[in-house]
Amino acid sequence: MAQKKGHRSLSSDDPEELARVPLQAVLLADSFATKFRPITLERPKVLLPLVNAPMIDYTLAWLESVGVEEAFVFCCAHSQQVKDYLNKSQWMKQPGTFTVQPIESHDSISAGDALRVIYNLGVICGDFVLVSGDTISNMSLKEALQEHKERRKKDPLAVMTMVIKHSKPSSLTHQTRLGNDEILMAIDPDTKELLYYEDKTDQSQRFITLDKMLLASTPTLHLHNDKQDCYIDICSPEVLSLFTDNFDYQHLRRHFVKGLLVDDLMGYKIFTHEIHSSYAARIDNFRSYDTISKDIIQRWTYPMVPDVQYFGNCSQMKLDRLGIYKAPEVDQSRTAQIRAFSLIGNGTAIGDHSVISNSVIGQSCTIGRNVSIQGSYIWDNVIIEDDCKLSHALVCDGVHLRAGVVLEPGVILSFKVEVGQKIVIPAYSKVSLLPQPSKQDSDEELEYADANSGVVESPSITSIANTRNVDPVPDSPDAEHSDTSEVGISGVGYIWSTTEGGHEEEWRHSIAPIPAEKLMEFCLSAHTDLGVSNQDVNSLPASGELQLDSESTGFDDGEDYKDSADFEKEVEATFQRVLAGVNPENVILEINSLRLSYDMSHADCAGSLFYSIMKSALSAPFSSNLSFGNLI
Amino acid sequence: MPDVQALVNDFVLKLKRRKIEGSHASAQHTAELLRSVISHQRMPYTNQAGALIDAVKAVGEQLIAANPVELAVGNIVRRVLHIIREEDLSSTATAIEGLGLSAGSDDDDEGQHEDRPALSAAALAAAARSTLRAPSLQTLLEDIPDSAAAPQPPSSGGDSEGKSKSADKNIRSRKLKHDVIEAINELIQDIDTCHEQISEQAVEHIHQNEVILTLGRSRTVKEFLCAAKEKNRSFRVFVAEGAPRYQGHVLAKELVSKGIQTTVITDSAVFAMISRVNMVIVGAHAIMANGGVIAPVGINMVALAAQRHAVPFVVVAGSHKLCPLYPHNPEVLLNDLKCPSDLLDFGEFSDCMDFGSHGGSPLLHVVNPAFDYVPPKLVSLFITDTGGHNPSYMYRLIADYYSADDLVVKRRSTS
Q: Which residues make up the CATH 3.40.50.10470 domain(s) of chain B?
């Protein structure tokens, strides 16, 4: 309410905006990506449950809470499902100022297309909020909107405000906690203008190239690699026309943002708004699904947490100690254990001696005896028979696991898959009732394919043939399926082969935590990387510390560090010449000039000199005492 | 009544989304909503009270479920139910007095039974109960003529005594609703004026040159202190800041603007300062039936410190915070866990919550509870709008304000 009043007063003292425009939002109910396959073949991503509520509910609830009055939901793939859901949901029939209007399109294959369609409809009349339907946030937009409006008044070229949040990427894997690659942004600290944006920093060579003009035109500039892009943008109507003008813009970040930043003819500017205390994140892949679910359970998204009925349609949850959320009608055996940070949906039955930890379990599930569920997401109406073991798996609606099934970390079981007795599904497998689509598959394929990420493109026919086990026959459940291949499923479902390029990425984006071996590998490679470039200095304890510094602060220090290594090498070489008989005076002069040219301090100089003395003392036999005497 | 339903839905949504928070605001809104529900309720020919009670219960159940932490909502629903019952009883009583055991009066009573003799017996019993019922201590007190600050009696049993005994049935049918709405108006007014009623008593409790400690910010406490200041008492206030929301800072500002000597201390310094304090005055979120208090987090610690140093621990709260439930009742949700971002900066700790590399289970957990429970033995005095009371007296006040049939609003209406 206060939000709205703020608006009104803002526009009333502004003579240009006498006609108040309602705050509008465009919600892209399609991710235009294939990350959530095979699940998204059957259900759109925005309707997938996140802690037992569809993702789109979180986004709509947030939009409503920040005072958006008109939300346009752009549906593309599975548009009918999205529309049906919206029609049934409370959002459509809610009285008051918040209206939801679906927009349907069947030929859009990217966010760019979607925005072009919206531009052609001509429904956007003022500044609007652009989010995708998988954004979770509890931030208040008031400040960001005001900043945006004020900037617009001063500078009509400021077309967009991006919301960013401080979040440290892992120093080992160089990916954020949401499983994205770390983003490198250059931001003007005074105006908050975004000057550079790179989300695919080259992992192998740890440097970036900044345009010289960038440094020339701005007096100061901060380089951040610890910011998370929340994918919440406040856009001016020009953004839509920009997309129409540049018909090759597809991806919001990769094309549009970078395009604007590079293009200095038009001079459009993008600004950033950093949020501190509130939460905002987007579900981009399975890892972020896992991370955000855990954030919700840990209540970072308050008030959008399970025990506050924010959306109204979910059942009342009760929060017990240690972050255990339980619906009122859970049939839990006395000997079953529910451990910390779990959520159990309504009507679920849990058998004797089962252990559930760090997991989300949906409604009306049946869990047998001695089942162990760890870090997994189980949606509605799932049947898990006795002695199953699930760790870090995602199990969709209607799946049936027969007794003794083991799901290794990272397994995705799509809708209604059945798994026969005592089958072990290997890590990172994806099982679906639908066969892996080939290139000439349905047009649904088209809708989902991200036009520019050719790597994740659906596999060719040959790779289908390579699919390790295609088992479309709905076997009788007890028939033990003995295939020659390692994987056997007696039941219903195809195991999808991982695409060639995707295999490397599998562990990065999976629900399962990064395996310990991978982390070790990273540790090692991080060490050897540095080792190669600074072999000589590695033995020095002092520079060992330096090494750590440069690791954490990133790119600029690396350069420095290299310098100092070179310097030490040079000093050592010069010193060796004293031993070889060159006049010490000359050498002193030479070292001094070295110091000046490398811009080192006296202490550095003395340190490296001392190091080289010690080194030569170690290597030289005792007989060379004389020459030392000379020098001293 | 589509418009009433819309109002109810709107309020339920606001409660669910935590747009209305705080006992005072939610109590007020609830009372106003129930008033409009009752005024729009179509009255049947028979069993009018029953119809009203059912309507209020149906709405009340939704409201309570929408935000179970906000106990004031449930309190007001129960108060309204109690008002309806009282009005019904008193009108029945007058009817019996006026008309005797005529058949006409039977229609107005609980029409669930079919046999008339039994029904009239029930009516008699009810009437007898109402007349034989021991007068509440409060009504006794109010009979004393010079009770200047005595508030309106919550039960209007006394009021209707003077109403015309030859009440026509037709008039009565309209009157019940009218009386109930009148009584609810009084209730709303009570909620509105509770701060003044409480702060009127401030001079009796705060003496010259006293040192008073409080934690966080409560509007009632603020008004209480300011009222004492207006009566030219000079005293000093220690304000514990009330982490993590630091409402104490706001209170300190407000007190200073009123010219009160204020010292802000951290919550952790309470024990160190308590020996210099003459009295602790705090607000409450709810007062339970056993005299226990649900109050902003940190107050239990203050209460324990006060007890250790034998400092009086005074709780000021309006009577709408009086909850007829016991803290061990399963219906009571005692606490609300708020967002951890009040405590920690998410960005700084984001590497502690990288679920990708720590075996997938969160190692860091932040708990940010909103409330504390203070057991009754730690409370020295309650100051409500009806005066000061002992914790052990709370059950008595509750008997005045609520009827035992309404304690569980939920179960009755679903059955």
A: 200-335+370-401
Lowest mean pLDDT among A160-164, A306-310, B112-116, B182-186: B112-116
Q: Please answer yes or no on whether B357 and A375 come within 8 Å at the CB atom.
A: no
> H-helix or E-strand containing A588?
helix A584-598
Q: Which fold has domain B200-335+370-401?
A: Rossmann fold (3.40.50)
Which residues are CB-neighbours of B288 under 8 A, at least 6 positions away? B294, B323, B325, B326, B327, B332, B394
Q: 416-475 in A: which are within 8 Å (CB) of B?
A: none
Contact A477, A493 (CB under 8 A): no
DSSP SS3 for B299: helix
SS (H, E, C) A48-97: CEECCEEHHHHHHHHHHHCCCCEEEEEEECEHHHHHHHHHHCHHHHCCCC
Q: List the single residue in B337, B351, B357 with the smallest CB-CB distance to A299.
A: B337
Distance from the Cα of B72 to chain A's closest Cα (Å) equals 17
Cβ contact (<8 Å) for B338 and A300? no
Q: What ipTM does this complex have?
A: 0.78
What backbone torsions phi and psi does residue B233 show, to the nearest 5 degrees? -80, 135
With CA atoms as reference, the chain A residue closest to B67 would be A308
What is the helix (H) or strand (E) element at residue A490, kind and residue range? none
pLDDT in tens, B373-390: 999 999 999 999 888 999
Q: What is the pLDDT of residue B107?
A: 43
Mutate to test the interface with B, among A309, A321, A508, A520 (most CBs of B within 10 A): A309
Most confident of A582-596, B97-111, B223-237: B223-237
Classified by CATH at the fold level, domain B2-104+122-134+156-193 comes out as Four Helix Bundle (Hemerythrin (Met), subunit A) (1.20.120)
* Contact status, residue A38 vs residue A436, Cβ threshold 8 Å: yes
In sequence order, the 6+-apart residues with CB closer than 8 A to the CB of B117 are none
The pLDDT, as a whole number, for residue B73 is 92
Q: How many CB atoms lie within 10 A of CB A532?
A: 9
pLDDT tens per residue, range A508-566 = 778 888 777 777 787 787 776 554 444 443 333 333 333 333 333 334 444 556 677 78
pLDDT at A625 over 60: no
Q: What is the 3-state secondary structure (H, E, C) of A98-158?
A: CEEEEEECCCCCCHHHHHHHHHHHCCCCCCEEEEECCEEECCCCHHHHHHHHHHHHHCCCE
Partner residue opposite A177 with nearest CB, options B16, B345, B356 = B356
Contacts of B42 (CB under 8 A, 6+ apart): none
Q: Which two tokens stand for residue A311?
A: 């959306």
pTM of the model: 0.77
- Contact (CB<8Å) A167/B346: yes
The DSSP result for A358-424, as a single string, is S-EE-TT-EE-TT-EEES-EE-TT-EE-TT-EEES-EE-TT-EE-TT-EE-TT-EE-TT-EE-TT-E
- List, in order, residues 6 or more apart from A626 with CB less than 8 Å away: none
Q: Write the DSSP assignment of B74-121 as a string of letters.
A: HHHHHHHHHHHHHHHHHHHHHHHHHH-S-HHHHHTS-TT---HHHHHH
State which residue of chain A sits closest to B64, comparing Cα positions: A316
Q: Where in chain B is the domain with CATH 1.20.120.420?
A: 2-104+122-134+156-193
Query: Contact, A408 vs A426, CB < 8 A?
Result: yes
Residue B62 banded pLDDT, cuts 50, 70, 90: confident
**Which stretch of DSSP H or E encloses residue B24?**
helix B23-40
Tell me which chain A residues have a C-beta less than 8 angstroms from the C-beta of B65.
316
Q: What is the pLDDT of residue A394?
A: 92
Structure confidence at residue B309 as a pLDDT band (50, 70, 90): very high
Q: Is A2 on the interface with B (CB under 8 A)?
A: no
